[in-house]
Amino acid sequence: MITSPPKDLIENPITKVYNNGALVIGYTSYLSSVDVKGRYLHFDELKHRLPKQLNPTLVWSLMKEARQRQSQAVYSSLVGKRLAPATLFMTPTIQKAISETDRNTTTAALEWMCNKIGEQKHLDYLLNDLIEDEAISSSQLEGAATTTKVAKDMLKRARKPRSLDEKMILGNVRMMKFAWEHRNKNLSVEFIEELHQIGVEGIEDEKYKPGVIRTSDDVVVENNDGEVVHTPPKAEYLNDRLEILIQWVNQSHHNAESSDYIHPLVKAITLHFRIGYEHPFHDGNGRVARALFYWYMFKNEFAAFRYIAISLLLKEAPVQYGKSYLYTETDDMDLTYFVDHQCRIIIRAINKFKASYKESVEQTEVFNRWLWDSGLYRQLTDKQQTVFQVAKSQKAVSFTINNVKDNLGCSYNTAATTLNGLVELALFKKEKEGREWVYKMIDQKELVKSWKSDSKRFND
Questions:
Q1: Which three-class secondary structure string do you get for 187-210?
Q2: How open is the CA angle 176-179-183, to the nearest 5 degrees?
Q3: CA-CA 20 to 30 A from 88: which of 68, 103, 118, 146?
Q4: Residue 458 pLDDT more than 50?
Q5: DSSP per residue over 208-233, as a string?
Q6: Contact at 8 Å (CB) between 376 and 422?
Q7: Per-residue pLDDT, 78
Q8: How far is it, in rounded angstroms, from Cα 98 to Cα 101?
Q9: C-beta separation of 33 from 72 below 8 A
């Protein structure tokens, strides 16, 4: 459990500091919203970092005074029957995430990347793989035990899910697809309900109650040890709170010259937080919250977020993800903790996306050079080049006629000819799995060895 901040702050803390003589310099270094490393610390973290001679309550009072001066009200929500504001301080991390988002994830930036890579169909394969990452990792974050490898195999082969965990992942894929396809819609309670229904229907309907907003207070959030770490606000005013949130989301805050300007990234993260905090459904709330984050980014022309998997990194440190909720909740709904944490994750996720793109560009150049030098370039069709290139980059390991048909947008017969042609050229092998042929590239070392010993066969 975390340590909540002191409820009773010291009045006029600066005056109190100047009465501390030799300790003045030690205290005044905390008259700031962030520490010297730019971190926005909660009292739970701050208390461990203080010199023993300093009074933790006085230090906290100094920091809170600085934060109150520098923070802005982002939105208000009902607490019981009254409206209470949620606040935000723009930390260096938040500002950096906004900059990275603006430079690398807009629809225009994505189009530029697609044009630069040249091999559009190869990029399509890469992007489809990245789309799957968020759906899989978001489910794993919620407890799905299926491995990423098995989950990708299920999705690429379009086979039916064999377990509740696989159903959860498939539901997430459908939910993310729904968010993308309905990105131009306004938010509504009905939209949130439909998103939830698409994501969880057919998994365990009694547990999830697909598309049904809760009317009871029997929902809690527990940690891995079974301890209750969050009790959502009562259901009594839940619909009213959702309507206030929806009105705020649908309101435009994107005029940079306006005093109520909020960047879409910050607004999307706030929506993520609010759904997770409210827990409007009996289960599946985290998945819905993250899907709505993506929906809002799509809505505001940040199309590259289709391929940026936030949950992949949240899954690596779920405790910190949970704490970012609790820090906000225990410190007067100060959103900074949650937004700052998400922005740290988003910066890393954008960097992973950029690295995947850069690697794909480099592999394309190397592959094309190898194709030309080996003489294969003259023998492979453009579709065979695409499939072989994807296999060589290991963005996909197994191929079926159906998934090649879907990814390349061609007929079943063309996809079959493409894959069987690669087998005939001794580049691929095929094996029967159930009723379906599965194609895989021959091990690269064996392939190179085979080419060196028998290269004449391909150049005649």
A1: CCHHHHHHHHHHHHCCCCHHHHCC
A2: 150
A3: 103
A4: no
A5: H-TT----SS---EE-TTS-EEE-PP
A6: no
A7: 84
A8: 5
A9: no
- Domain of 421, in residue numbers: 396-459
If pLDDT is split at 50, 70 and 90, which confidence band does 181 have? very high
**Half-sphere exposure in the Cβ direction for 239 (13 Å, CA):** 8
Q: Which residue's entry shows tokens 């520098």?
A: 70
DSSP state of 160: P
Residue 175 shares a structural domain with residue 279: yes
- Can you tell me the distance from the alpha carbon of 35 to that of 49, in angstroms, rounded to the nearest whole number? 10
The whole-number pLDDT of residue 339 equals 98
Number of domains in the chain: 3
- Residue 105 belongs to some domain of the structure: yes
One domain, residues 56 and 99: no
Tokens of 457: 């066969």
Q: What is the DSSP letter of 84?
A: E
CA 73 to chain centre: 25
Q: Alpha-carbon distance 320 to 340, whole Å?
A: 12
Phi, psi of 88 (to 5 degrees): -150, 135
Query: What local confidence, expressed as pLDDT, does residue 214 receive?
Result: 96
What is the distance in angstroms between the CA of the first residue and the CA of the last residue of the chain? Answer: 72
**Which residue would you say has higher pLDDT here, 124 or 16?**
16
**Domain identity same for 33 and 108:** no
Residues 101 and 47 both lie in one domain: no
Does the residue 373 lie in any domain? Answer: no
204 and 164 share one domain: yes
| Higher local confidence (pLDDT), 212 or 122 | 212
**Which tokens sit at 224?**
């891995």
pLDDT band at residue 244 using 50, 70 and 90 as cut-offs: very high
| pLDDT attached to residue 119 | 43
What is the reported pLDDT for 147?
Answer: 77
Q: Work out the average pLDDT over 26-37.
A: 89
Q: Which residues 6+ apart lie within 8 Å of 232 measured at CB?
A: 217, 219, 220, 221, 277, 278, 279
Q: 93 and 49, same structural domain?
A: no
- Residue 324 placed within a domain: yes
Q: Is the pLDDT at 397 greater than 90, yes or no? A: no
Handedness of CA 115, 116, 118, 120 (dihedral sign): negative
User: Is residue 323 domain-shared with residue 350, that is, in the same domain?
Assistant: yes
What predicted TM-score, i.e. pTM, was given to this entire model? Answer: 0.82
Answer yes or no: is pLDDT of 361 > 80.
no
Residues 331, 74: Cα–Cα separation, whole Å: 15
Q: Give the pLDDT score at 139.
A: 84
User: What pLDDT was estimated at residue 130?
Assistant: 67
Sequence-distant (≥ 6) Cβ neighbours of residue 377 within 8 angstroms: 368, 371, 385
